[in-house]
Specification:
Elements lengths: L2 H19 L14 H28 L1 H8 L13 H5 L3 H10 L6 H5 L24 E2 L2 H10 L9 E10 L5 E7 L8 E8 L12 E8 L13 E9 L9
Parallel strand pairs: 1-2, 4-6
Antiparallel strand pairs: 2-3, 2-5, 3-4, 5-6
Pfam family, one: DUF1980_C
Protein name: TIGR03943 family protein
InterPro entries: DUF1980, DUF1980_C
């Protein structure tokens, strides 16, 4: 790859990282908030490397134009050995950058969750214990926490408690719908889905798939033995459309 091409690619990639992490919250579509400092640092380093490479190339051209061109073409030039188009292919590396800057792919949503089962996982240990639930009516919970409590907490502290859950709508079986939220450990590539089946008069008609809603309701025990893929039930008293949150993941 020619040195000037490499310099431009480094600057473009670094600028794209800084744009989504330093000057906006777009990075939350791809990674956890805790990784923001690392994205900013990486973007700054790439820009500095690109600028340094460009300066070195200009200085080399001024010092010895013929030798500089020969060195720049060392890995990307023709030389009659079938390396035609090497620098041209290198420009394809700009496509991911342009996708981030111009298209800004959205966060994972209903399309991903629709094709995954509920990921309610039993906490470590044969007989897990849970801390008491805080006061509040309704009790605001993450959807993942509600799933774990509803499925695995044998003390059933959710029985009779009204809870407030937030997520997006995915279609369920038999015409029903799920309130869904994706959880990531590091980045969108490891996203796992948590789901709650919404029932009751307030749940009809179902909101549009992919729309974000806040649901206030009461846990509905189904009397079935808990399994890793159990999807809890919630009788909704109120369903409210809301804007997509800044951070779409739990």
């Amino acid at each position: 790859m020619r040195r000037e091409v490499r310099a431009i690619l480094l600057v473009l990639l670094g600028t794209a990282l800084l744009r989504i992490s330093l000057f906006s919250d777009s990075y939350l579509r791809y990674v956890r908030a805790a990784l923001r400092p690392y994205l900013i640092a990486t973007g700054a380093v790439l820009v500095l490397l690109g600028v340094a490479s460009a300066i070195a190339t200009v200085q080399a051209l001024r010092a010895d134009p013929d030798q500089a061109h020969a060195a720049a073409d060392d890995h990307g030039g023709d030389h009659g050995h079938g390396h035609h188009g090497g620098p041209g292919i290198a420009w394809l590396l700009t496509l991911p950058v342009l996708a981030i800057v111009l298209i800004a792919p959205p966060a994972l949503g209903s399309y991903t969750a629709q094709r995954s089962e509920s990921t309610t996982v039993k906490p470590a240990g044969a007989q897990p214990t849970f801390p008491p639930l805080p006061a509040g009516d309704p009790l605001t919970m993450t959807l993942g926490s509600f799933d774990v409590r509803a499925v695995w907490d044998t003390a059933a502290p959710l029985r009779g408690r009204r809870v407030r859950l937030t997520g997006f709508v995915t279609a369920g079986k038999g015409g029903g719908w799920y309130l869904t939220r994706l959880t990531i450990s590091c980045c969108a590539a490891d996203a796992l889905a948590s789901k709650v089946e919404i029932r009751g008069a307030a749940a009809n008609p179902a909101p549009p798939a992919g729309s974000w809603v806040e649901v206030i309701g009461t846990w509905l025990p189904d009397g079935k033995e808990a399994e890793p893929d159990t999807i809890p039930l919630l009788t909704a008293a109120q369903v409210t459309r809301i804007p997509e949150p800044k951070d779409p993941y739990e």
